[in-house]
Amino acid sequence: MTTEEMIDIMRAHTKGLKIEYRVKAGGEWLPAPEPSWSWVDTEYRIQPAIDPRYSPYGDADEMLSDISGRIERDPVLGGIFLRVVDSQKGYTGMITGHCSDGVSVDGMTYKFDVAFRRFVYMDGTPFGKRG
Length: 131
Description:
The chain is α+β, with helices and mostly antiparallel strands. The chain contains three helices and twelve strands. The protein has a five-stranded antiparallel β-sheet. A three-stranded antiparallel β-sheet has the order 2-1-3, covered by helices on one side. Strands 4-12 form a two-stranded antiparallel sheet. A hairpin with a 6-residue loop joins strand 1 and strand 2. The longest helix is centred in the first third of the chain and has 12 residues. The N and C termini lie far apart (36 Å). The model has no long low-confidence stretch (mean pLDDT 84).
């Protein structure tokens, strides 16, 4: 992270925006109401805004009806898949399954409300229903 990026995050904090932190080794982003600004071993970011037009899926049927237009076909293997971006860990994952109240991404299961806060679709839209 550049010095200018660090300054931008600190300025955002002085303007009242919420800041999150995590240890540099990885881990989940947590609220930092009073950041210590220990840049050596900690990463900071402005808390991502949640689009108020979206909310978590209520059940698997809602999710399945919404994702039909987002499914991709693997040109080599021929299988279908759906990719999402993990906003906490910064990597692209694949939806590997679902249950009545949650979704599995790369084998880890998340309740829909947690998945809504954690994942976005590849086009940047929230992992949830619109409206």
